[in-house]
# Entry
Amino acid sequence: MVEIIDLEKFEKAAFILKTVAHPMRLAIVELLTNNDSLSVNEICEKINGEQSLVSHHLINMKLKGILQSSREGQFIHYSLKLKEINKLLDCVQNCTCHF
# Structure
């Protein structure tokens, strides 16, 4: 009997992997895994990134459904919308691959 593979789940996984496949984006995901929400300024400070570049990555991940945001006064706070991404981050951090 031939096993049929569900390509839809792999398409979703590939979409998520492509979305976070950048060192700064992975750092942002890790920060938001360990914090309920952070402002753009807090994220910039913690990863030593330029505000415009960090904002670009945050907006991209928000548009693709990885993050969500809320406004608190003049600050925008970001948090993980796709909580399952924590498993991906664990896998990446525990990888024993050598480059």
